[in-house]
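Dear support,

We are seeing what looks like truncated structure output for some complexes. This example has two components. We would appreciate it if you could run it in full and send us the complete token output so we can diff it against ours.
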Amino acid sequence: MIMLCAATSQASDLGYPEKEELTFGFIKLTDMAPIAIAYEKGFFEDEGLYVTIEAQANWKVLLDGVIDGRLDGAHMLAGQPIAATIGYGTKAEIITPFSMDLNGNAITVSNDIWQQMKPLIPKQSNGKPVHPIKADALKPIIDKFSAQGKPFNMGMVFPVSTHNYELRYWLAAGGIHPGYYAPHKGDTSGQINAQALLSVTPPPQMPATLEAGTIHGYCVGEPWNQQAVLKGIGVAVVTDYEIWKNNPEKVFGMTKAFAEKYPNTTIRLTRALIRAAKWLDEENNKNRSEAVTILSKSHYVGADYDVIANSMTGTFEYEPGDVRAVPDFNVFFRHNATYPYYSDAIWYLTQMRRWGQISDEKPDQWYIDIAKKVYRPDIYMKAVRSLIDDELMLPADFSALDNEDGFRDPQQHFIDNIIYDGTKPNEYINKFTLGLKADDKI
Amino acid sequence: MSQWYVRISTTVKAIMLPIIGIAFFLGLWTIAANNIDTSLGQFPGPKAVGTQIVNLYQEHVDSREKEQAFYQRQELRNAERLKKDPNYPAKIRDYTGKETFLDQIITSLVTVMSGFLFAVIIAIPLGISVGLNKSLNLAINPIIQVFKPVSPLAWLPLVTMVVSAVYTSDDPMFDKSFINSMITVTLCCVWPMVINTAIGVSSINQDWLNVSSVLRLPNLVHVRKIILPASIPAIFTGMRLSLGIAWMVLIAAEMLAQNPGLGKFVWDEFQNGSSQSLSRIMTAVFVIGFIGFLLDRAMLKIQRFVSWDKTTVNR
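Here is the complete output from our reference environment:
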């Protein structure tokens, strides 16, 4: 209550929100946490915003909701605002002032596939597999499937999802072709030349689809990997933290029209989300178990406390009994997780080009222009400055962001050791063995 | 003496047999539940459902407390702002928290009743006109026969698209989701009501029609004094039939379209995949059944009350 009064009395120079009643959409995944926390902890109300939070059936319904105005904003896959802006799928101008989290996904395979993979993986002295597990161990099994003329199916959550690109990245790093898209020919299945056939399955249905044998593995966010492990349906082989350390995951998306029509509302909701993200990470994750209790309520994520806690509290159970510490599995605030980096947007664009979702070669400047259209650190920094002015946060919380130009330094820490420099997208695309290069066209 | 004995034994039977039936069912259910293991844990037995009823009620109470706090905070905040910004059009916004199980029950009931009443308004006059007029009957009958067997769920996507195209307003009185569910309910109620009403009207005793002709009753009076009273039993048979179908269809429509109500509750719980999900769904199943039963009983009571022909309602 005290904080509430402080917020409303000091934030007055920011201007009142133009729209006070908002509806936000989300998908039942633990990384929607900043929205739930901003609601439950009253951060939205501190900004004078009355927010209704609604679970959406799938990513398409969610995106359509934001585009047609049924939703004012939503928990989105990082690829969604980018794809919408370049017109892959539904064309619409969607922006993001706030990056929601880093990491948080994993790849799970069925018990049957795991039994075949396990002998091919090097072991530690204690008999447990050496991590990270590479797709090299999956390659012989896929070869066996194709020799028998059987398809090897895998699930991911959406054609422009982080999960699709991560799964493709992991497979391709192990020499398995995940298939090309060819939108200019009307082919959006992404299975041209594919050795592993990827298709869309909604996250909550992943474990059930795996159990039914329709797919042999999948890439999804939590709690759906831990769910499969705890129920003994499958084994998590690799987390996205191991595929690309501290990769950007979800963003908070809204239409450009909304942000232009309601600038104060936009800054204020960004402030609430930043405060929620900080709450989630502060003092060495001390609030995480309270966050898990909130997320396990049936109108948020709804899975069991234990299942959500498994990944939210710094550990990850790969196969039953093999629990390892992954302190950065879910990052909401540290490592500048909330800053919308242009270079993150460009990485997604490079992967869209690599797998043919972008049909033609584009100059480097095109990548940078699109990133600047979609990712909006200007709004983010306004929110940060006003939070500091209102003494709700300390300048030290954002010290790394002074003079930030929006491009991370060249990043290494990928599973195939290729270095990514966001300022040179074409150079990066040409480094991959598998995937479209330069002026390749399907 | 023997008559007295018979009466007692009938009463005992009327009480004991259902109890035995229910006990037998609970026993079978417990055994079955203990032997079914799903990926979401054991299938819920009677005990799990009992626990969930308590839980769901508790959640409702907690949510109401949170709602109170929400309104208090809002009033404080409004007052605070009015001090600095006297022109602020302060208003109290509805609670932004989630609907509880009880709220969902109310939503479904309101939806089914609105859809049903809307259908009554359309179907009864249409049924009477069709029953009275042979040519109209011939003209409309094929359409009714084709649309009657269509599951209203097949209409749902069309209804959804049409409603979002046609029903646009900045400050709508009803939610689009409510309108969608309601129209779906109406679509499944209309056909049985039209058909039953038409049959009732066309099979009225010829003598009564003759009376009307002899008295040279004006058309409206003819309908009011002769047709309506005479066809009430058939009309209510149609209404009772369609309310039962409507309740089933509504739950399915809510699941499919994610519209608020019991169907959405079931689907959300299924999507959650927590260890409590199945027992909560089972609880919802019983509540849905029980409400369906009550709706049917209520219609039966009304039917008995308004009907002159007591023999047609003993089913």
